[in-house]
Amino acid sequence: MATPETRRKPNILITGSPGTGKSTLGQQVADRLGFEFIEVSKEVRENNLQGEFDEQYNCHVLDEDKLLDHISERMDSENGGMVVDYHGCDLFPERWFDVVAVLRCSTEKLYDRLQARGYTEFKIKENVECEIFGSLLEEAKESYR
Questions:
Q1: In the predicted structure, residue 139 carries a pLDDT above the cut 90
Q2: Which of the listed residues 12, 17, 102, 122 has the most CB atoms within 10 Å of its CB?
Q3: Could you tell me the pTM of the whole model?
Q4: Pure H helices in 14-120
Q5: Nearest one of 90, 83, 132 to 111, comparing CA atoms
Q6: 23 appears as a binding residue in the annotation
Q7: What residue segments make up the domains of the chain, in order of their start?
Q8: What is the number of other CB atoms lying within 10 angstroms of the CB of residue 99?
Q9: Is the Cβ–Cβ distance between 29 and 83 less than 8 Å?
């Protein structure tokens, strides 16, 4: 099992509210560094790693155990060089990441982006409030001090 001290290249987590640009930045970082990019939402869809459907949020619930099992070999590799895009950081073992970036966005821009994605008003409100309160930044600070 790799650790930050034994990895040849760092693993990077890009986190933030939906609509802040995680996937776009993650792909760009991976391309420029020659790293592998794991867009968690895409991994979940393509590998059937979701659980039940949540009517309130109008999406499937992530099966966290399936996801972690699915990516653990790549994340624990001595090579490193992984860029992961996910909205939170507390799901993952802290040992997996050397760098954590939390993307932020103005609430007006975020609202427009989520509305353009077809999010319900409830889901938009939840995500905008999360951005206002800086919940994901606080989560990252607590996990990676």
A1: yes
A2: 17
A3: 0.92
A4: 22-33, 40-46, 64-75, 107-116
A5: 132
A6: yes
A7: 12-143
A8: 13
A9: yes
Burial class (CB in 10 A: 0-12, 13-18, 19+), 30: buried
Tell me the three state secondary structure of residue 36.
strand
| Longest Cα–Cα distance in the chain | 46
19 marked among binding-site residues: yes
Say whether 22 counts as a known binding-site residue. yes
Instruction: Tokens for 93, please give them.
Output: 């073992």
Residue 30 near residue 103 (C-beta atoms within 8 A) = no
pLDDT tens, residue by residue, 73-105? 999 999 999 999 999 999 999 999 999 999 999
Phi, psi of 7 (to 5 degrees): -70, 140
Does the annotation list 24 as a binding residue?
A: yes
81 assigned to a ligand binding site: no
Q: pLDDT, tens digit, for every residue of 15-66?
A: 999 999 999 999 999 999 999 999 999 999 999 998 888 888 777 888 999 9
